[in-house]
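explain this:

___
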Amino acid sequence: MRTIADSAKITPNSNKLQAIVQIFDELKARYTTILTLVVGFDPDLCHHKPCFPAGLVDSTLIMLRLYTLAALCSFLVACTTADPVPDTPVAGDDTLEPPPLVTPQARTIPDNSVYPLLVAEFALRRRAFDVALDHYMAQSRVLRDPAVSAHTTHLAQFMKREPEALAAAQLWVELEPDNLEAHSTLSTLLVRRGRVLEAMPHLAQVTRGGGDAPFPIVLTGFDKMSTTDQETLEERVSQLTEEFPNNTQLMLTQALILAEWNRAEQAMNRLMALFKLEPFHYQALLLEAKLLLERGHKEPFRRIAAALVASPDDSRLRLQYARLLTRDNISAAREQFEILSAQSPEDGDLLFSLALINREMDDSTAAKRLLERLLELEKRENDARYYLGRIAEEDGENLELAVSHYMKVTAGRDFMSANHRLGRILVRTGQSERNNAYLD
């Protein structure tokens, strides 16, 4: 186990670290009562004698002691309540109620764990996250405390260190088997590792506990699973659907599996049952549209259109609707993109999509206006320059303007095409030397 002295790399001054160690020795002896009252720690937590003779304690040292006490107290409270760093979003977490805060219970921390935990807290404050995580991982196994394991899980997720996050979450679930967040987090981490069958019991636990488990995540990589694993997964989903017949997430998962197996009729039946419970379920709407398109239905987007009438500000659904319309109704797609752009007038992606649609419809004037707006907003400038160059080149009356735009394309997927078109214009107009100079 490393101590603070072993972790001097987290501070530019090792002498200050040694001073902090000594100060904390005295704090443990002098402020046991305060620690007990503030964070619920047992008085037997601290056993050391004061390190400094009373005559050596001046006002500066007192301030340092109080600062260290404040840091330690805030850390200890954080370990039993909230995270000191923002957590990485996990699929399904936004649907769960946060666990209620529990008043800390008095408990004894082993003396050998105090320093590593303090090192971890100072490392967090200095953004030395690797040092902090190493200490928390070690201490979570030593202390076997659910709050420490949860804290470690969140930190590992924040750092995108999924092997450590998975190990910490597994311990968290073991120590606190009724915690819905723990099960939801573990299920997501297992899915990301391709262990979807292992994730199912944890998603089921979330549902049994009253949470909204994101069952469709288990279909990640479904097409790469063996036939046996696919059938096993479908069987487990069906079993849970019998247990929770009105769970729309399970019903959607069933429909998605059936669609993947090209059982469109059965998939549609499941969707119809789902729509009776939730008429405008986002993912179900998109799956129904896909299935109807594949069957050549005359009105594949009828339900999506009705959903947008009911919720006109649902930009996420409207964007998907607009994209679907680009397949065979570009005029209707433009109308939807215009609505979206009006709702978010400075969204560069929407402006660019609308510009391309207008260009596709031979409305170069509208396309040019939108591309110039992107330049004003300083968004997607390389894309805007390239297509402004294309419009000027196709117009044929101002090739120098096309050259100017192409020369300002410095990166992106159209960079090579811009250079090729630029060179072709310069050579065609007798400006080979200018072309060579540009290429050099």
Q: What stands out?
A: The chain has a mean pLDDT of 81.
